[in-house]
Specification:
- With 458 residues, the chain is mostly helical.
- The chain has 18 helices and 2 strands.
- It has a two-stranded antiparallel ribbon with strand order 1-2.
- α4 runs parallel beside α6, α13 runs antiparallel to α14 and α13 packs antiparallel against α17.
Length: 458
Amino acid sequence: MFRSLSLFNYRVWFIGALVSNIGGWMQSTAQDWVVLTQLTDNDATAMGVTMALQFGPPLVLVPITGWVADRFDRRKLLMVTQSSLMLLGIAVGVLLLTNVMTLPLMWMFALMFGVANAFDSPARQAFVSDLVARENASNAVALNAASFNTARLIGPAIGGVMIVLVGAGWMFLVNALTFFAMLIALAVIRAGELVPRVKAPGAARLADGFRYVRGRPDLMVTFAMVFLIGAFGMNFPIFASTMAIEFGRNADGYGLLSSVLAIGSLAGALLAARRDRARMRVVMYAAGGFGVVSLVSATMPLYVLYAAMLVLVGFCTVSMMTTANGYVQTTTDPALRGRVMALYMAILMGSTPIGAPIAGWVADTFGPRVAISVGGVAGLVAFAIGFCWLLYSGRLHRNDSRRFVLTLDETRPIAVVAAVAPEEFSDEVAGTTPIRLPEMDVPDIDVPEVAPDRTRRA
């Protein structure tokens, strides 16, 4: 489960990310509560607009951010983005403490946070593959999710209590300090031990990532499922804050709900880390499970029962997202990984500008329980899309020896679009490739000798 932590570089990255993520969740809790209770009168729609502005830039800037993540040194790029986020946090904290902050100003800062994260997220996701070898990439991605959700378990609970005790402004300043942990980690990482990157020669084409994904039906289906859950199901700040108010709770009650959600999220991430590789069927099953438990949680009459259901909601959500992330990373051509991960993050984070305002409006108009139910239905639709593709792809078929038993193939050959400057094919690469190709009998034929300097493509 923790094999990637045996590597020095990943261990340093993991610790730095954990500290920084704790501060990030404290700030996120403060921002949501400030918009909902200080800058507005419990206006969930305004909160949805804030989320849309913060998560919209990754969708709009995806061609540029993916190209930047593939073209430039990701470690140096992360130092720039993390420093920018730290300075923005300081600015918001000062404005809150001096009582200057207004809703339009908060929206402006949310947009700037979104722009910085648009460049930070694909580089951070792809950088994991620079820290570990390909056979450990899925494990490293899952441990990254474990770090994120451990912080999610701690950060909102601390943030909620601290908001009551000292105010929301201090949460932004504390988060600014935690960015130093990530910056120190990036400085300490041994550059010589990073996995060599495959770079596209010349001016890397921005459209290569789009064409690559378009030629991979499995990725298209994965992106569609992630979009539905991300747009309509993962609006947890809106759901948890409005439900906390409905149950008569304050900021500490809202923070506790976020931490309870993280208990299931952490369990899902650790379970994903135990798997040898990411599988599409796990993504599909987790999406269906998310739909069911979300619908059940919307009916809970008591705060304690609703909190208990959030454990299952968090488990299903992270099981799906971590597996989808690992699947995309481990089956993508390394030369295009940054651009493909930028598309993935744009789908995940960019779906929020579409779904968050809708969820906020539904919560204001019909109540938070209806908004949660909409997210549950989206999870069931995502499951249906995955199941239909499973049937269409031929992975699910009748067992050859048992008439009434269905067999699910673990993998099928995936037609990979040749990318610019692919990795040289070798027995070592074949041994770590997560796509298993079927054995077939090939007749003996005379093959002309290939010049040693030419790249052979699968």
